[in-house]
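Deviations from the work plan: none for this task. Representative record:
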Amino acid sequence: MSAAAGEDGELSPAEARLAMMEIANMISVPMALTAVIRLGVPSKLWAGGANAPLTAADLLPPGHPDPSVLERLLRLLASRGVFSEHNPTGGEDSRRFALTGVGRTLVPSGPSGASFADYVVQHHQDALVRAWPRLLDAVLDPSGPEPFARANNGVPAYAYYGQDKEANEVMLRAMTGVSEPFMEALLLDGGRGLFEGVRTLVDVGGSSGACLEMIMRRVPTIREGINFDLPDVVAAAPPISGVRHVGGDMFKSIPSGDAIFMKWVLTTWTNEECTAILSNCHNALPAGGKLIACEPVVPDTTDGSTRTRALLENDIFVMATYRTQGRERSEEEFRQLGLATGFTSFRAIYLDPFYAVLEYTK
Ligand SMILES: C[S@@+](CC[C@H](N)C(=O)[O-])C[C@H]1O[C@@H](n2cnc3c(N)ncnc32)[C@H](O)[C@@H]1O
């Protein structure tokens, strides 16, 4: 039985206590997941596509003193659909685990070698985890520093990544790992007509340039790509044929192009900051030029579906990590932000359960 909004009347008191017990201990799930990723479990199971069910002992170095500790993590994650559990002989020592479809997102599928495993690890680094106990402060002082900055000597997340080589690289891989499969879908049929007539494309907040590289490979009419991000970020980005990495600050100005691509940027900022970014995009475009933004769009109704949960959980992640008043927005809020900045038309295209494509025309 689900305890989603509006359904709690169906629960007996014992079921309600059980549902709360589950929520109270939910942190076990992402922390167990992070541990098994750092132990290399998904790639050992995948083994080039074999995905043969293995025991915890098989997944650890020979002679490990107590594989049952790892087995407990694997069982929890099997209950969450990350692994399938096989118990061929029914004996206590014979539990074997393989990756499910959900688990396979932790294995690289694209050319970069990154996957959702990098995203999970990025989200559970010490500096990010430290922010969570300060979530209360976001409510009490919404215009003050976000929980991440409060927990990390006043340093905001993007500045923190810039100062820490390893955190910067982890962020680049995390963004690539999540972006690649979405970009594959976006780029079906040569980009679904979104990039027609574009010769110079700017990716604002483009991170490693992985999205731009994929677009340029699929849409050969684009002659020049400009990957625009913070100077420390582009300094760590790999060279990409046809792409110029440009370091700068989107709050000051954005390089000009026929069109601008921008993925997962607006959500992390406040309305005032989004207005400044959109306004700089508008200035960088010719008349009739397009801004193609890919952002999560928050649903109007609340339910217990995986989609709603994934979106609302990400909204609170943004609150804890980037900006208390940065947030996921509805389609109407995105429309209003763009029209108020001078864009003349707007449409939203839903081709993925997490990201919507928001097309603004100047
Ligand atoms: C959530 S990430 C998205 C990365 C990439 N677009 C993707 O979806 O894979 C947001 C990006 O915005 C960049 N960013 C943050 N502040 C910026 C600024 N002031 N100017 C330019 N880029 C910025 C970050 O460095 C980061 O790469």
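The chain has 17 helices and nine strands.
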